[in-house]
Write a structure and sequence with these properties.
Distance between the termini: 62 Å
Radius of gyration: 52 Å
Structural class: alpha+beta
Low-confidence stretches: 419-423
Strand order of the largest sheet: 2-1-5-4-3
Shape: rod-shaped
Helix content: 40-55%
């Protein structure tokens, strides 16, 4: 259950929200606690300052050098009234302010209160007879600028904590509601995200099983939509690759079967003595030799193509005199051109020397010329041209064959498309070799007038 993305995604989302909420709540509570503590102390300082000021004023007004000690009267604003007004406890620590009078201030004798310093003090303590801890501020009571005691205003610390508890309670309620909303939102978003992912997963299972006719989500947005589009393209390419592989194997089987059938028929006839005429027997042996050579070329071309597909084809780096190489290629087909009365020409517009694999370049040019001779009828015209411009070397082969329709030009470079006694791999290998050498082969053709194949290689 928890291994499913549709479960883990909302759980992770809610867990993230919960963790963020907890961290935020802890920080908020701590900040509020500090704020409430500081506010309470500020309030206590204000009250202590005001009340001690009242007592200081009363003492200074009722105390003179001629006034008898026992005649000083306690103020009418007794401490009990002040406690009811402020809601705090009020104490006094110091000398007896009003002998014989009840000031209403509870006496407090704490060693930590150094009222003789005349400074305002902040501290925590447990009042006599009580069990709770109080926050307190002690403010000096002054007589003619001389401290005679300290008035202490105290508030129970639990009142501060109570405010914090109220905040925590409200945060918990808000957090629970927020978590519920986040869970619903996470469930909705996870379904929106997971649905196309699950569809892609099912499609991937079908592709793995060999079924490439799969449907992928077509309304997904963002990265999921991009992934779905690329997956659909991949499925189409895999289907095309499998189809080409089947066609390739069928073509190879057919191409191998044809010469083997011919060889087997002639050999059987010779072995069984069906052929008595020496000339016919010699002709049969010539056919067997020709078909064996065709088999050798076919196997060699298949091996070359396999090496190119596997990127295991070795390409040498050497200086290649293109003028000599084109001349060799031209001489290879000169006799065939003479026998078929083909107007066969070569034009050298440059004498470039490039760094490449000479044997492979010659193989490409030979394949292009071989294709031109197969396409050109007797009495036609074939030209071989060498040129150099714009940092590249061009070797072009023009023929007066039937031409190639636009829709068939790309298919021409696929395996086993060419005919006329060839293996059907020459142009395929030529294109792959040109790419391996850092170049390309282009094709221009006009139906009824002929074609032009051009090999372009880097000049350096």
């Amino acid at each position: 259950m928890f291994s499913s993305l549709r479960v883990r995604l909302p759980l992770l989302f809610v867990a993230g929200i919960l963790l963020a909420g907890l961290v935020t709540s802890v920080i908020a509570v701590q900040l509020f606690r500090n704020f409430a503590h500081d506010q309470t102390l500020s309030e206590l300082r204000r009250e202590a300052n005001g009340i001690s000021g009242l007592y200081s004023t009363w003492v200074n007004e009722t105390f003179t050098a001629t006034t008898r000690r026992n005649s000083r009267k306690a103020p009418t604003f007794a401490g009990a009234n002040l406690e009811r007004a402020t809601g705090d406890l009020i104490y006094f620590d110091g000398v007896n302010l009003f002998p014989g009078e009840q000031s209403g201030l509870k006496k407090l004798n704490l060693k930590r209160i150094d009222w003789t310093s005349g400074q305002t003090l902040t501290f925590e303590f447990t009042p006599p007879g009580l069990h709770n801890v109080y926050l307190a501020v002690a403010h000096p009571v002054m007589l003619h600028k001389t401290p005679i005691g300290a008035l202490v205003v105290a508030k129970r610390k639990t009142s501060v904590n109570h405010s914090v508890y109220l905040l925590v309670e409200r945060l918990a309620i808000a957090g629970a509601l927020g978590l519920l909303v986040a869970a619903v939102l996470a469930l909705y978003l996870s379904r929106r995200i997971v649905r196309p992912v699950l569809a892609l997963s099912r499609a991937a299972d079908k592709v793995a099983g060999g079924n490439y006719a799969v449907e992928v989500p077509d309304r997904a947005a963002g990265e999921i939509g991009h992934l779905a589009d690329r997956f659909g393209e991949m499925a189409v390419r895999l289907a095309e690759a499998e189809r080409r592989e089947r066609n390739f194997l069928m073509s190879v089987s057919h191409e191998l079967r044809t010469p083997l059938t011919a060889i087997r028929g002639h050999v059987s006839a010779l072995r069984e003595g069906v052929v008595d005429d020496p000339e016919v027997a010699a002709h049969s042996l010539e056919i067997v030799e020709a078909e064996a050579q065709r088999l050798e070329r076919l196997v060699g071309d298949i091996l070359d193509l396999a090496k190119l597909d596997a990127h295991r084809f070795t390409v040498l780096k050497e200086e290649v005199d293109m003028e000599q190489l084109v001349g060799r290629a031209y001489e290879t087909f000169a006799e065939q051109a003479r026998q078929r009365s083909i107007d066969y020409r070569v034009e050298m517009h440059a004498k470039p020397v490039i760094v490449s694999d000479g044997d492979r370049v010659l193989q490409i040019v030979d394949n292009l010329l071989s294709n031109a001779f197969r396409a050109t009828p007797d009495g036609g015209r074939i030209s071989l041209e060498l040129a150099q411009e714009n940092g590249s070397v061009q070797v072009a082969v023009d023929d007066t064959g039937p031409g190639i329709p636009v829709e068939d030009r790309e298919r021409l470079f696929r395996p086993f498309v060419s005919g006329g006694g060839s293996t059907g791999l020459g142009l395929t290998i030529a294109r792959e070799l040109s790419v391996a050498l850092g170049g390309e082969i282009s094709l221009e053709s006009e139906v009824g007038r002929g074609s032009r194949f051009e090999l372009v290689l880097p000049s350096s």
